[in-house]
Amino acid sequence: MEKAKGDAATGQDISWQAQKSAMTRDRILDAAINCFISLGYTNVTTAKVASAAGVSRGAMLHHFPSKTELIQAAVEYLHQQLLEDYSSRVRKIPATAKGQKRRRAGIDAYWQYLTGDLFTAYHELCVAGRTDAELKEILEESTRRFDQHVAESNSELFSEWNDHGERFLIAMDLTKFLMEGMAVGQIVSNRDKRVKRMLDYLADRLEEIFQEGESGAIGRHSAKNS
């Protein structure tokens, strides 16, 4: 009986140590993302991340022996945070919102996601990846998975348009590239007013894409590339 109690206590100790280790790891990764935002990727070092996380150098090396391992884990962690952030915003769209109202709510949810701190960190990494081949490779795989998740969400949000082939793909890319460009271009006068105007225009233009005939711009483009 005493041995059984001892085994149980040992198991609890191991479980607590594993939980504590996971919490420390997440704290380091949170600190890494915050450092990307506040310092910029090129200025981030393992020592600065350890300081921001409030952990010792030894604890940092235990979890991430090299900067490469830290960056790879941070990108994966950021990817999961991005997915959760975007998914939670989409889930908040009221079930009573239908048709055009639901589609517009989807645009607003995507804009809120693009202007959050997590996307700011992701954009910082993408900029750094232009001249860092190792980082670029890490980001490419993460981006493919996230794009697939967004595509699945779009298929639900814009379900009435799923069977429109080329028109649907162009509409989704128009939304992605226009909105991401707007999010990156932070320094403009009257920003809120101009952003609302552009989002209103985008929402109306998306509706028009699926209403215009084959003689319209999208129809001509589809015929040209078919």
From TrEMBL:
DNA-binding region: 45-64
UniProt entry keywords in alphabetical sequence: DNA-binding
Domain spans labelled HTH tetR-type: 22-82
Annotated GO MF terms: DNA-binding transcription factor activity; transcription cis-regulatory region binding
Full protein name: TetR/AcrR family transcriptional regulator
Species in which this protein is naturally found: Halioglobus japonicus
